[in-house]
From TrEMBL:
<keyword id="KW-0282">Flagellum</keyword>
<dbReference type="InterPro" id="IPR004100">
    <property type="entry name" value="ATPase_F1/V1/A1_a/bsu_N"/>
</dbReference>
<dbReference type="InterPro" id="IPR040627">
    <property type="entry name" value="T3SS_ATPase_C"/>
</dbReference>
<dbReference type="GO" id="GO:0030257">
    <property type="term" value="C:type III protein secretion system complex"/>
</dbReference>
<dbReference type="InterPro" id="IPR050053">
    <property type="entry name" value="ATPase_alpha/beta_chains"/>
</dbReference>
<dbReference type="InterPro" id="IPR022426">
    <property type="entry name" value="FliI_clade3"/>
</dbReference>
<dbReference type="GO" id="GO:0016887">
    <property type="term" value="F:ATP hydrolysis activity"/>
</dbReference>
<dbReference type="Pfam" id="PF00006">
    <property type="entry name" value="ATP-synt_ab"/>
</dbReference>
<keyword id="KW-0969">Cilium</keyword>
<keyword id="KW-0813">Transport</keyword>
<keyword id="KW-0375">Hydrogen ion transport</keyword>
<dbReference type="InterPro" id="IPR005714">
    <property type="entry name" value="ATPase_T3SS_FliI/YscN"/>
</dbReference>
<keyword id="KW-1005">Bacterial flagellum biogenesis</keyword>
<dbReference type="InterPro" id="IPR020003">
    <property type="entry name" value="ATPase_a/bsu_AS"/>
</dbReference>
<comment type="similarity">
    <text>Belongs to the ATPase alpha/beta chains family.</text>
</comment>
<dbReference type="InterPro" id="IPR027417">
    <property type="entry name" value="P-loop_NTPase"/>
</dbReference>
<keyword id="KW-0653">Protein transport</keyword>
Amino acid sequence: MPADIPQLIRDIDAIPGTSRFGRVTAVLGLMVEVGGIEKELSVGGRCIVETRDGRPVPCEVVGFRQSRALLMPFGGLDGVGLGCRALVAGDQPSIFPTDAWLGRVVNALGEPVDGKGPLPKGPRPTPIRNAPPNAHARARVGEKLDLGIRAINAFLTCCQGQRMGIFAGSGVGKSSVMSMLARFSGAEMAVIGLIGERGRELQEFITEDLGEEGLARSIVVCATSDEAPLMRRQAAYMTLAVAEHFRDEGRNVLCMMDSVTRFAMAQREIGLSAGEPPTTKGYPPTVFAELPRLLERAGPGLAGSGSITGLFTVLVEGDDHNEPIADAVRGILDGHIVLERQIGERGRYPAINILRSVSRTMPGCNSRNENELVGHARRLLSSYDNMAEMIRLGAYRKGSDPQVDEAIHYQPALEAFLKQGKRESTDLATSYALLAEIFGVQWPQ
């Protein structure tokens, strides 16, 4: 018997013998109101609405109002009118990832969109919307993880199972940093979620930024900005679900998402359409409830399993790093990397502001010598930053402050250390060695 026959038999057995359906009673904006089956549905359940010409539109139940179910579509509502049938489609489906998914690009529903044929089906189902592991049963963060970017390796050391945010305005280099991390990190594999990405940039990111080398060890989940808000939100859940599958197999997974802000914007559209009251900057309460549920899914797994190292980009509106989403995410994650437009305008990429960035696993994950080396470099960067305006104006007199004199002396070398090309990789050991070389310190110690 062919190997795929038993799976085919299970799929056929799962097809229900009867169908239950209601009727569309109202359509308002992004919301479809359905009557007749409200007792058969629950929040998060699925329905298929049939248009006038018979085209199926998958929808999700997002609430109830006056004995009617409120549905949000995964696609457009063109052709949906009063009286159209809405069939009950069951609960949230599961996905069946496998190693054969590596190198593939899928959409928010787990369907292939790269033209490479159907996705193989793994033996074990993984729920798309899953709860984080129990906090008391989770393992501790693991050993240091090489991310290939020397500014992060040295000054913002990340550990396996840690969750970091990459905060930046538009056009400051978030996608470039993500592509470097996907290609150069020491993680076993990467799961990359592109949430609300520009359609024009998707192929550029996959073919140029990520490249064949990065794609071969990655699974990309994408939902472009023109897709329905439910698809954009679902893409974030799908990204974590794929990462959780491989974590439970004992892998150390690097999970990257660009961006959490667009996930929050999609949830805002869903919440406002369902009638939630707007709060800060128009974000309804469910946005701030869903953020920790999503981000807490990353991190160490249960004892004996693998880990998910999460790197989540946050698109700060108007370069305001204290706007509501950035503020909420910063309080959930285990550190933040700040990319600053002024640094990028000086031509230094990645445009990381070391002094405004922090890794909460430091200094605990470093040796005493490593902490002393990094601490000395940070103090010099801080001294130069405090006096930068006076130095540029020529108002600072050499000899006024020995530490500032030292900072001025080492500033060109430190600036060169923090600058790195997109195709250039520097491992953890080399990062410390290069930093020690600037100060003439013998390394390793």
